[in-house]
Design goal:
- The chain has 447 residues and is α+β, with helices and mostly antiparallel strands.
- It folds into three domains: 160 residues, no CATH class; 98 residues, Helix Hairpins (Orthogonal Bundle), CATH 1.10.287; 155 residues, Heat Shock Protein 90 (2-Layer Sandwich).
- The protein contains 13 helices and 13 strands.
- The strands form four sheets. A five-stranded mixed beta sheet has the order 8-10-11-13-12.
- Helix 8 crosses helix 13 and helix 11 runs antiparallel to helix 13.
């Protein structure tokens, strides 16, 4: 697993990088293709409009009358006119051409295209006959617009001296690349979405694998520790049984009773380990049920303090009861609640030094009953405080090599507190001690 895991991470990372690179290159190619398609569509739409305009501009000349006031050589009713070919501005308004362009772009699938236009005269200097409102402004930004110049060639018709007008339709598409990108919006959104999904899946996969790897290591440690915890009492029981077979022990009632008590104590120790593991299994299956009854917390704390006197004497320690709650009756599961308080006191003794002082403090608020277990032991690091309630996790004890357990005690404490709809918090300073605070709602039995 140690060798395979890095290889899997590398392969997945390379695959993810490859997908992203392919996506980027695909977008670049797609942008070029879309720009060419845009050009073709704009030119086609512009050409269609130019052809439509050219069909209608030659339908007859415009007569320019000439009269001389005063002296007349010719009668007034004698027609005398000069004809010229009509221009686009003579036949159409700006709105007419705007409408034609919008319809032409719509046919090409460019309904949302932003554009400006102008029509120039037939002079060599491209004098503007008519233009849209923002044509001058947009055509000045030569860096970002795309310009299309389409000649308007009128059909053959009557002309003056054989000359036909030769006009041009100028179309300007401002912010051309931006509009091309906008046409790819949905494609970009979905591509980005799927890329994010792939990255999220990669992250979850790696996180799960790391979690499984970590859990596998923790469970392996748990099994090794459990084997040791059961092997020791079994070996002790085996030695005690062999001793009971000795004739000297059989004839000595005191020795016989001594070895018999050893067997009983080690049997109780094994049963306690089995019970701890079974409780953890029940919690994992979510088969944790409470038998809620009114309980006097102060009596439980006093009993726990009395039970641990022998262990405290070995550490030259003591328990101080600071029972400040005026009313100590709380509806809880007596067995489980007693167990978690015992676990907290037991941990305070295990992870301690000489001259141990444990304070059991109670408070009562309008909604909660609060119990604190304070000690001046070895304390915990920030990492341990974060992980103290994780199943199978055991804190590093430094020079304390005699601390035993499965790493299930604090997980059990957290589960019981949660089952009572309460909270448990821990504050600790390395080398100075720890404080565990349990808050239990007072109205739990009423729900």
């Amino acid at each position: 697993m140690k060798r395979v895991f890095p290889i899997i991470i590398v392969l997945i990372s390379l695959s993810l990088i490859g997908i992203i690179i392919i996506q980027i290159n695909w977008f670049k190619n797609q942008l070029v293709i879309q720009q060419e398609r845009f050009n073709d569509k704009v030119e086609k739409a512009g050409t269609d409009v130019a052809e439509d305009l050219s069909k209608n501009i030659v339908s007859g000349g415009i007569k320019l009358g000439a009269r001389r006031p005063g002296f007349q050589l010719l009668p007034n009713d004698l027609p005398f006119s000069i004809s010229r070919m009509p221009t686009i501005s003579d036949r159409y308004t700006i709105a007419d051409i705007q409408d034609k362009l919008v319809k032409a772009f719509g046919k090409e699938g460019l309904e949302n295209l932003h554009f400006e236009f102008a029509v120039t005269s037939n002079s060599a200097d491209f004098l503007i006959e008519m233009q849209s409102e923002h044509f001058d402004k947009e055509s000045a930004d030569s860096l970002h617009f795309r310009q299309y110049v389409i000649p308007i060639n009128p059909e053959t018709g009557p002309s003056l001296n054989g000359l036909l007008p030769f006009e041009h339709l100028f179309i300007v598409v401002p912010h051309f690349k931006v509009q091309v990108w906008q046409s790819l919006t949905w494609m970009i959104v979905f591509s980005a979405l799927f890329t994010v999904i792939i990255i999220a899946a990669f992250y979850i996969t790696v996180k799960t694998m790391l979690s499984q790897k970590k859990m596998s290591e923790i469970k392996s440690d748990f099994i090794n520790n459990m084997t040791h915890e059961f092997k020791t009492p079994l070996a002790t029981i085996s030695l005690a049984v062999d001793a009971l077979k000795n004739e000297k022990v059989i004839n000595d009632k005191t020795k016989w009773q001594y070895f018999n008590n050893i067997i009983k104590d080690e049997n109780k120790r094994m049963n306690k380990h089995v019970e701890t593991i079974l409780q953890a299994a029940l919690m994992e299956k979510q088969e944790f049920r409470l038998n809620l009854v009114p309980v006097h917390i102060h009596e439980i704390l006093a009993q726990i303090a009395d039970n641990y006197q022998l262990q405290l004497q070995e550490k030259n320690g003591r328990i101080e009861l600071l029972l400040n709650a005026a009313n100590d009756t709380v509806t809880v599961d007596e067995v489980h609640f007693t167990n978690i308080l015992s676990n907290l006191v037991d941990n305070a003794i295990k992870y301690s030094k000489e001259n141990l002082l444990i304070k059991l403090v109670t408070h009562r608020t309008a909604k909660h009953f609060i119990i604190q277990v304070q000690d001046n032991g070895i304390g915990m690091s920030k990492e341990t405080v974060k992980r103290i309630f994780e199943k199978f996790y055991r804190a590093h004890t430094g020079n304390l090599h005699n601390v035993k357990g499965f790493g299930l005690g604090m997980s059990y404490v957290k589960s019981v507190a949660d089952a009572h709809k309460g909270k448990i918090k821990v504050e600790s300073t390395l080398g100075k001690g720890s404080t565990f605070t349990i808050e239990v709602p007072l109205n739990l039995g009423e729900e």
